Amino acid sequence: MKLILGIALVLSLWSITPLVSSNNYLESNIYSTVNVSEGDSVWTIAARHVSDKEDIRNLVMAIREVNKLSNNAQIYPGQELKIPVKKL
Predict the structure, then answer these.
(1) Which of 23, 47, 63, 73 fits 69 for a cystine, CB–CB 3.0-4.6 Å?
(2) pTM of the entire structure?
(3) Is the pLDDT of residue 61 over 80?
């Protein structure tokens, strides 16, 4: 009986968890480049490159991955960052 309940619990949790989170920015091999200005953050740079209908977190994650930045990495004025162009 415990086994059946355990399996039922696992299946119910699995059914509500998305299997794949698609990030079209990570699939891109086309980039634009930006020079970081004073006061910029990865978030503010990403905000200039997404539409209101897009989830900015996808681009923030892609910028960090492409430029090999950790979540806590500091960017500095004059630094050049690659910005992935969304693959359609």
Answers:
(1) 73
(2) 0.72
(3) yes
